[in-house]
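Hey, quick one: can you model this chain's 3D structure?
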Amino acid sequence: MVFRALGTIIVAAALAAGCASSGTTTAPATSGGSDEFGQEGRDPGLDQRATTRTRDIGSQFRTVYFDFDAYNLRSDARDALQHNAQLLRSSPDVRVQIEGNCDERGSDEYNLALGKKRAEAAKSYLVDLGIDGSRISTLSYGEENPAVQGHNEMAWGQNRRDEFKVR
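Sure thing. Here's the predicted structure for all 167 residues.
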């Protein structure tokens, strides 16, 4: 008798746990939706597809490189920014943050200011190309976010850059 009662309790607990962990609930029917799309006619996979598309676009942005102690845009930087502008035009819902970076030479304060000028120069160029400035934020890491470790021109040249991050 005790075993039967214990067995019944275990089965009831398992069923209750299974229902609680499934995360499924029954939503009331609404006039705007269907079972296929869930409540309010929203496709449940929409957010996941949008996130995947945004991630794919984010990986296509080109990095902009700078000369030593400069924030003016070289011709290769303008080419990269034109490519990035086209990506932004094709995805009007995407917002980006331009992250300005410097090599290790110079003081922390100087490099933070230079990184900010680099990011702002890229933003200004994109705005001139017709991209809405409200879609673009800027941030400077100064020398704190090196792409390459090293104390030579090869490393420094890779660290003087603007990177684009989807936000």
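One thing worth noting: The chain has two domains: 30-59, 61-166.
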